[in-house]
Amino acid sequence: MTEESDVQMSDAQEESNELMPFMDTFYSLASNDLKERSFAASSMMSYLFLRKDYDDESTASTVKDGNYALTRLLNGLCSGRASARQGFASCLATFLRLSAKMGPEDGKTWIELMASAAKGGNDCSLYVRKTLKECTNYEGGAKNKKGGGKSRSDEREFRFGRLFGILAIVRSGTLDQASEKTLEEYISDLLGLYNHKSWLREPSIHALKEIFAFVAKDGDMEFFSLLVQKTMVSFLTFEKKSSRPWTAEKIALYLHLQTICMDNKCDLPKCLNYAVLTVDHFDKDMGGDTFKNILRDTSTTIYPKVHIVWKSLWLYLATQENGEYKLRDDVIVGSDSPKDILEAIVNEVIVGTLLGEEIEGEGFVNSTPGRRALALSLVRQLFAFHLPAEMIYNTVLRKQIVSNLFVNTFQKSMKGNSSNLKPMAIEVLEYILNRLCGSDNLNLVDHRFQTSKAFLRGNQNFDSVTKTDTISILLGLDATNTQLDSRGKGELYEILWEKHVNFLMGEILEKMLQEEDSSLEAVKYVDVLFAFAKRMFRAGNAVEVESNFRRILSFFMVGAFVDYSSFKDRDERANDDNAELHAIVKIFKMEKSIRYLVKVDAQLYTESEEISSSIFIESVDSLKELKSSIAIKNNEMDQKSRALTSLIALGSSFTLHLLHPGEAEADDDAFVEEDSITEDITEMLTDLSSVIESICTSDTAEEQKYLNTFSEICVGVLGSSIGGGNSNPSSIRGGGSKIIRDSLQTAWVATLAYATDSNIASLNADVMTTLLQSVCSQRVLEQGEESPSDEEMSEDDDEDDENSNISFPSNEVDDSDEGEDEISDAEMKSDNSTDQNIELDPSKLENLLIESSDDDDSVNANMLEHHEGADKALAQLIKLKQEARKAGRDEKEKVELSNRLRCMTLLEAIFSSSKRTSLLPNQIVLMTILPLLRSRTELSKSLASGGDISKKGLSKEKKSMLDKLTSLLESKISKSHLDGNANIDACQVVAEQVLIELGRVQEAEHCKCCSSLLVLLVKAISKQKDETVNFAKAIYEKTVVEWSTKKNSKLQSVVFDDLVTKCESIAKAVLTTPLITSSQEGRNTFLRSESFRILSNLYKTTKTAEEATDPHIDILKANIDNFAKGLEFALLDDEMTKAKRAKEIIKCGEKLLKFVSLYGDPSSLNCVKESCLKVISSSESPAIKSAAKKLEEDIENAIKISQAKKEEEIREVEAEVKSPPTSSKKKGKKKKKGKKKK
């Protein structure tokens, strides 16, 4: 805060010219309100020095008031009330400055007149010094019991007053009038304050710095050197075993004095010839502690304030212009350059002491929040330097600094971190971004690039971990930079992005080629490169991104098929068969063109590549012809072109999969596998070409078939080793399977979107059967025989055009092969039985084989005896065979589950969008329900049995599959938009099977799935009116009975909650009566309470027109009396009136009362009112009594209101009856008379 801020008058005050009374200003100077202090100071200055005319009388009065004001101001410095020191010190500085410059017309200044009047002579500075010393005299000793002296608190206040007084005098600018002796006295006072208490050291040194800076301001360096040498010799002399050890404050003053000499290019005084700040000095003993530890301990200064030593240190190393530091070429003492010293500060102080020691598994220890806060402040200050770009990466943002100060701060992983440094870290990041990205200066491109490199080195997911856009803003990929051309940043980002791409590619290769395993870091950099490519392509509408985009694509293509792990020992294997490829990798590492590497890899194609290309070329040509005929609107492709483009991309990924770079395995089976893959890919390319041709052609019949073919391709790919189905894929294909899966998913979604948009093709039973067979197990598919027959699935006569047969996929065989299949099935059963016979208990088997043969009567003399060792070996061999077969079955099941998981994405894509309603006829949705639900039941029971606990991999696969099925059934299929005209018989069969599945597993999530599917079946026939209600009754009435009466029932109340929530009107017609019964006859209090809760939701009224016209509301009206009796019995039941049950019942009564008030007679609730009175008298819970009393009063009021309405209606009827019939005739006569007048 400066003194100007406290003396500036507001415009309103100046216009009104209403000044504060002179004597009141002293009290207001201590106010905490800045505006009040400013007004008080300006009023005082106006009263004393800003009058228009001065005569002898007014001059004498001003001099008298000035002496009084000076004394009061100096005394106010010793007050600890509110903001007294700030207000009085700033006002004192202004008072001295104005009094030294202004005066009456006789030529003397006011301060000279005041000094003469006070008999202080003509030396104004001496007069001020004397007055300050008198008003802030702290040399009275401690107060004793007999009185006299000053207390310790008073002494502290007076010392502070002396300090603030000296600072005010320095800032007033009047020290140029002071004599050498006066300056020496001020310096002596400050040194005394420094030595008095440690908490006075920093402000005392700050005042000394200002005094010496003021002395050197006039350029008289000879006087400056003389004053320093005369006053500072004993204080600044360096002695290793000195009684006055060096402190951070003393170092700050020493560096400040050396900086003044350096800026004024003068010789150093003798006492300043010592080189305090050098590279080798940080570990040196400074009389009490090492230099770096002295700097470390400045962390006790609370942020945002930073210790004074750091400002002195930065000004010693650099010059400051417009808030920016520029490193000096050299320093005045020592041979180390400022750059080397700055690096030593970062290494020795920030990393070496402030961050603590990094221990693996424990993070950074021996650090404190205060030290880390200081480190953050220093990093922020270092970014104010105009440093070389490389120094940011190598020094300022070292990996330890980024990890500890930013990543760990946001992750809150620092042990013992009791303070929250996150806001401070965010502030530092914002400062860095404003410093580097605040302008379009091309000179800062390298700085932005090196900063982003440093942050990514600390953590590849820096933006996501810190939840900021730091990397995005540094690279120009934030949301505000979408229009780069208008902001003139095209050239800047073109250079920046090229550097960033080169860096990421180099890091990926470097990590993959390191001897230690760094593949995880390489994968993270791959993710960064991929995310950057996507955002660059979107944001670079005015920047040339094509070259970088092509380089990234080429890099990913090569990286997907080249196994770089084989090049780890490239120096030792320089003479092998892949020497050329090793050389290419080295060339690429030197940032040569990636295209050359692609060209070399292309030479390693197999002959099948030519075959596949010849098959695929026709589709490519047809796509080119199609592009010229398709109209592109708003720079967006239509659905057909999107589908064709994605299919072409899928074909390209098939073709790329035929690459065989790297070293082939010396195994005949591997080559056989590769030949098989080649044949499969060629066949898939042929089928894919037919799909593309079907879409390109205008033949409707062909277009209706392409989904069948394409679904078979998708299932075949995802279930084979091409799509990653093999548990041990060939290493030479690298990530090719991932590329194919991603391309296939994109193509499948685009093809479905085209089918929806075109309204030509739709999903038929063949497509859905193919998909369900890929997702469901063999055992589940065989249960399809229980599905309804074709006759039950037929639609009504008015829907003959639609094929309504719902068939559930099963693996049935043709009649012609029946005998052969029976034989094979018999053989399979025989094999299975053999396996089961072999699987004996190992302990029993061993006991059987080594059975004792000592009894001669039981052993035939001609029988061969068992050898004990051979028998044990045989038992062990059989045991190993059993374990091998079990492991084989588990591995086979795991692979099968993995394949099913990958195929799940195909079904999820179909049901994920509400726009695909046209693709999903009723029978297609219905035929998916049972196979998927049975699969979920099977997996849930398998996991619940606990047999897979020891098989972690298999158990994990089953849980993933279970979660996928649950999400698909509950969140997607159950939300399908059906037309409401599905076949009732078919829905009835499916509903019965769903209820069976519901009773097989006791699990909340399973019950939710089944409940959602039952509601879907009700909605499927929702437009068939009365039939819908009968259908729902057939399902839910028996369900309510089972839920409320059977002890071993696995049903839960969510089944009814879903119906009430999603089909409220139907729920009123179906659930009201059975729930009222269950509320009275339920087998326990919980079920009865749940019945009341669901009933209260049914009777909940919304007072809308739609509710008033609900055809099923009459059912609620008809059951009012039964519902009221149920509430009456519940309130009289001791178990039901306990606190946890009674609240629900009373709430239910409140909702029933609201309904009755609108649609019934409140007097029907008299029985409930009487029950409430009994609860009030018998219950021990105050809350229950209060709720029951409120319900009783509400019922009483409702009855009174109802009776009043009835009485009013009776009076109106009686009035109409008693009124004379002639009134209407008279009215008629009046009308006739009126007509005549007209």
Automatic annotation (TrEMBL):
Asked if the keyword Nucleus belongs to this entry, the reply reads yes
Region Disordered: start-end pairs: 780-841, 1206-1238
Residue ranges, compositional bias (Basic residues): 1224-1238
Q: Where is the composition biased (Acidic residues)?
A: 783-803, 812-825
Where in or outside the cell it occurs: the entry states:
Nucleus
Bias (Basic and acidic residues) occurs at 1206-1217
What is the official name of this protein in its record? DNA polymerase V
